[in-house]
Amino acid sequence: MTSAEIARTRDEALAEIRVAETLRALEAVRVKYLGRKGLLPQIMKGLKDLPEQNRAAAGLEANELKSRVGEAIEQRGAELGAAGPAREPFDPTLPGLWHRPGAMHLISRVIEDVTRICARIGFTVADGPDVETKHNNFDALNTPERHPSLDPRDTFWLETGECLRTQTSPVQIRVMKSRPPPVRVITPGRCYRRDTTDATHGANFHQIEGLYVDRGVSLADLKGTMAYFARELMGPAVKVRFRPHFFPFTEPSVECDFSCHVCGGAGCRVCKSSGWIEIAGAGMVDPRVFEFVGYDPEEFTGYAWGFGVERVAMVKYGLGDIRVLYENDLRFLEQFA
Amino acid sequence: MNVPLSWLKDYVDVDAPPEELARRLTFSGTEVAAIRTVGSSFDGIVVAEIVETAPHPDADDLLVCRVKDGRRVVRVVCGARNFAVGDKAPFAPAGCRLPGGRAIGATEIRGVESEGMLCAEDELGLSDDHSGLLLLPRETPAGAPLAEALGPPETVLDVEVTWNRPDCLSIIGIAREVAALFGGKVKLPSVVFREDGRPVEELAKVTLEDAQGCLRYTARVLWDVKQAPAPLWMRRRLSLCGARAINNIVDITNYVLIECGQPLHAFDYDLLADHHIIVRRARPGETMATLDGAPRCLTPDMTLIADPRKAVAVGGVMGGAGSGIRPATTRVLLEAATFDPLRLHRASLALALSTESSYRYERGVDVARVEWCSRRAAALMTELAGATAARGVIDAYPNPQAERAIRCRYGRVRALYGVETPDDRVVSILESLDLPVVSRDAESCVVLAPSFRPDLEIEADLIEEVVRVNGLDKAPTLTPSALVAPDASDAPAQALIRCRSNLVGLGLTEIMNYSFLPAELLDRFTPGETARRVALPNPVSADYAVMRDSLIPQMADTLGRNRFRQVEHAAFFETGRVFLRDDSGVIHEEERLALGLMGAPGRTALDARKPAQAQESFLWLKGILEQIARVQRVNDLAFAPFEHPALELGRTVAVIVGEAPAGVAGLLRASLGAEYRMNGPVAIAEMSLAPLLARAFGAPELKPVPAFPSVTRDVALVAPANLTNEAIARVIRRHAPPELTSVELFDIFSGEGIRKGYRSLAYSLVYCSAERTLTDEDASRYHAVVKNALTSELGVEIRDK
Ligand SMILES: [Zn+2]
């Protein structure tokens, strides 16, 4: 391919572009010259057969040809696209004029995600007050008086003798007291603990708990539900594992780790190199809790699980500091639109 | 809790590598948070004998020592004081490196040359103890490598013990878990010793008055105690567990505490009046000074250890200042007791005093083994402190605890676990945990729960033991199936989800604020309403002192803080609870919605710079309320004049749904906005959420779509500026025929050509009939009626083109 041939190709292409009268015709020209099997790619391919001393110069010319043709097509396209009957000034590149959508808060987003995931298997949302009785928040949950969670250094006690609930578990008590099994509910809500605010704690936070009571519920059901939940919430490859733990209202009690959704378990910053992230507490409902709400523990068994919404939000979206969730900086919030 | 592996292995044979041990413990419920290695090869560091000490000529707090490092005698400057000539201590000569990497060189310290360094535990990376030199046994040869004197590096498991397992707050308790996991038996230490002294009853007396507070009290007496540092191996173990060495007597009580989980207290026998211990309730108003020197106000709920003249300890919490071991002590009364966990917990809370001892007692200390642990400590005191033990023990144990028999049904294990666990396996797991199975039948076995396991009360507790030892990983993972619980409805929650999504669709961004705020913020927005507020008796800080009774202050605050961050336009909403106290003190919660607008969020990019006017800003807010009401199927929304302390007078309306006031909307008081440098109008609304959710899923009221074309007629009029749009529209609607289908304001104008104090308004009226096509004449006739009504009723001037 010589300089003359390149020049001729250019003149032919520019002429064809000029006379294209519709966007469709122009597209045909584009395909002819710039398409994957078009003339210009062929020219480029042909360069390697040239003698070495000519190759560089021809390469430059070919590139120049390609960009000239590209620009000409773009310009002609704009002319054709802008052409209206009245030929008024028209600029399709001006900013779009519609109001911007708002954004849901990240905490609401996690709660709604979980609500939707759980709704698929029949969990409905139950609710209770933030100001709770000691009975519902502690006693009926089999929490002895001397358990450290009742400590006024940890719990906000009010002058009425009530407290700001430290967990959403009292909602489980309210639900079970109000209707017979089977029960399948989740309880998203705000909780309070006397934590000093830092990167991972706040005196005010959100929890979601799940409760299922029926005949014949076992640990295997709990494992299956948590496995389903982990996949739906964090991604299809995420696995769960259980470690025994202690909570006053479940027996046995477990802590539930999710395999790291970032590294897939190989170890990274998010999972602190362990491949696992501690997410939820869970267990089989303690028969003593059933006795408090008037369920027959011989007839019914059940599982309960719960986790912190802020923690899941942080893990899922890679946030390093919980406080960003309550700063309400529009520049942060609007990214979740 | 720190568990040094070499200590653990005193009681259980286990060969597994530390990682495997940690894994098995973690996955059976005893979480090992970390595995640490303490100690090193201590290259170059040797044992040195201190042969001479002299004060530093130029520094009061330093000593100049001559030490023998096995080859020669060198001079070292030293800041510690806890040694004497003849003692042995670790010596890092010039040219070597400390385990932390610090290089030791020959230096001059205030004019005196120092050829190395005598080391404390922290400098050797053994602990954070910097209270003095690490003293080695005097028989250690000078010049011996330190690694030989200290032994190989130690592996320590950092174990997190759950609240229900106080038995695992001891090395023997952990050994029991290890034995169950790996097979094997726990070997208990020796408690055999010579009781050469006089009978203890002749030497001391115990009166247990408060038998509810103190379940068991034992006392032993030991004479001829020779105080000295505890042997190196014991000091090393205490140090690995985070306890500081004091002297052999105190160290032995701490050692037995960590080994067995039994708190002990050593009294100076000669400081106890009449050698008589009285365990009683504190008297009202009684005070005492505890070991830490603090004066303590006691209450009758607290159990006191006293002698006939004075209180000597708050039982199970802390000893008194004037009765403990002092340098001159040679005779010891050794207390080993158990206290009622709840009473002790309350005492610890009331005194704001938590100790290693109270921490264990409030979780539960094994009442059955109190006497055994006392024997263990006495044995160590005779062996390591040369003590002569009095014969026998005083053991006040008025109400011996009955052991609980718990039945465990194999079928129930399988039902809860979801795993076919053979009956024999269930029994063998329970027995491996030292839980004696006293009887068996075809369906179940019966366990006699030992007193060291206060957590075992019912069958489910035993099932948990089986599950955690056998392994949670063995339970299958059952794919869940859906279940519809009869009568379960969550319409309010679903309605809120819909409402939130509609607000987002309208262009609002959700914010979330704490439920509590500083009283000062509330005072600025709603002064004088303090009586209904819920203040926290124990807030974390003044910033979180009061529960919010309105979402408005934080909404304004959020807008203002965004303004500070150079955000100019914002449209926010928040849903959340407010807390109000009624006259009888009962706290009520209400779910509310707040809206907040700043700048010109209602404009598009091309005219965003035009400053927002008050009227416009208010109308955006009103528009959002109208639209959210509409999509939430609220069709009876109305507004009425209203006042609110945080909102501008005359620019505030009540939001009404049906007949009931549901909230407020208006412009933030300019003075409040100015505090945040928000100089343009800020529009804020707050309303109850319930009316917006009540009909969210209701069907819209459908009207037939018109079958005949409509005719549109405009009317422009000049009216006094204070005649409202609503008044005009009302007259139009009242007088127009039923064919009028809509009235829309499409222009407002004042200024040139319009008298001062008047404005021009233009309305577009649409007429349409359900029965026929309206003619121009029809429309003109209808329109004339409307115009007449406007002039006659309102006296406005109709502008004809
Ligand atoms: Zn990871």
Task: Describe the fold and architecture.
The complex is a heterodimer of chains A (337) and B (801). With 337 residues, chain A is α+β, with helices and mostly antiparallel strands. Chain A folds into two domains: 3-87; 106-336, BirA Bifunctional Protein, domain 2 (2-Layer Sandwich). Chain A has helices spanning 3-19, 23-34, 39-46, 52-82, 106-119, 134-137, 169-178, 219-234, 287-293, 309-317, 324-327, 330-333; strands at residues 124-125, 131-132, 163-164, 183-192, 204-214, 240-247, 250-259, 276-285, 301-308. In chain A, α2 runs antiparallel to α4 (52-82) and α7 packs across α9 (287-293). In chain A, β6 and β7 form a beta hairpin. With 801 residues, chain B is α+β, with helices and mostly antiparallel strands. Chain B is built from 21 helices and 38 strands. A seven-stranded mixed sheet of chain B has the order 26-29-30-34-33-32-31, sandwiched between helices. At the A-B interface, α5, β1, β4, β5 and α8 of A face α8, α11, α13, α14 and β26 of B. The complex binds zinc ion. Residues 260, 262-263, 267-268, 270-271, 275 of chain A line the site of zinc ion.
